[in-house]
Amino acid sequence: MSLMEPGVVRPVTAVAWTSNTSTCPKDFTLISITEDGAAANFTRSFAMKSGYYLCYSKDLTAGMVVSDIQMISDKESIPPGYCYIAEHLEAKASVWKKKRVCVHLVPVGSVDTAVLDVKVTAKSKMMLQHYTYVGDVHGYVLWCRKGLFKSPMPQAKPRSVSLDIHRISLDQPSALLPLRPSNPPLPQNKLSQRRHSLKNKDNSDKPADGSMQGITALDGVPFSLHPKFNIQANSAALQLNSQLNNIRIKSLQDIENEYNYTFAVEESAAKRTRPSVPTGGAQTAQ
């Protein structure tokens, strides 16, 4: 199976600087040797005992992946969405500040392409196939490989079982509780009478031939509808059909002609003038 197939290689989730294996986090992989066989110690001079190495992680616990890696100088502003990589260093170690490595972190479910691997080579003409050149710093060249990946399937978290459930054992049956009578005990004479009545009731319910199901008077009688009900049904159907046939469907013009009203009476009444009462007559009468 090729390593370039999607879903085979897990994506890189973090990149950091570290002084040595003791300061490197447990979930990170330290790059101690370059691809051309040199020591990958990014130190300013060989006289320094403590240096710094690149390390990367593929732990998806945080839910973030590295979608891109860039190397910028100390005079450049960090690109939007990028951040400087973390530093797990000793107190006397210092990172080469003239060039800084920054990464772009995105949620694992938002992209399907991310950085799958990080490698370091000495500053030479060596080229890594399928890898992208990131930049060079202090005699070393940083490379990264991008590709498709598949998000891991979410795993169900195991439920915590309480101590009480652990104590339950299906192999050992639980102790039987003593039975309690629901009714008070009856006297001997009343108990015998009750048994006698129950026996008589059971005998009366049983069929005469001793079979499980008795034969009734309706067994074997065919079911049919009386003819008079069929006649009424047929006559009702004929009457309904005749009523449906007599229904006349009116058009819009027929409805307007039948219910047309001109409001002529109301119009003539509105045009009538009311008689005016002279005001001078009342004063003359006084």
Structural commentary:
With 286 residues, the chain is of the alpha+beta class. Helix content is 22%, strand content 22%. It has helices at residues 163-167, 188-205, 227-245, 252-258, 264-271, 280-285; strands spanning 14-18, 28-31, 53-57, 64-73, 82-84, 86-88, 99-107, 113-122, 132-137, 140-148. The strands form three sheets. It has a four-stranded mixed β-sheet with strand order 2-3-1-6, with no helix packed on it. It starts with 13 loop residues before the first strand and ends with a helix.
Task: Offer a quick outline of the entry.
With 286 residues, the chain is of the alpha+beta class. It has six helices and ten strands; from the N terminus they run E-E-E-E-E-E-E-E-E-E-H-H-H-H-H-H. The strands form three sheets. It has a four-stranded mixed β-sheet, with no helix packed on it.
Give the SSE map.
Elements: E1 14-18, E2 28-31, E3 53-57, E4 64-73, E5 82-84, E6 86-88, E7 99-107, E8 113-122, E9 132-137, E10 140-148, H1 163-167, H2 188-205, H3 227-245, H4 252-258, H5 264-271, H6 280-285
Parallel strand pairs: 1-6
Antiparallel strand pairs: 1-3, 2-3, 4-7, 5-7, 8-10, 9-10
| Relative helix content | 10-25%
Would you identify the regions where 5 or more consecutive residues have pLDDT less than 50?
A: 1-7
Strand content: 15-25%
Number of helices: 6
Tally of DSSP β-strands: 10
Mean pLDDT value: 75
Order of helices and strands: EEEEEEEEEEHHHHHH
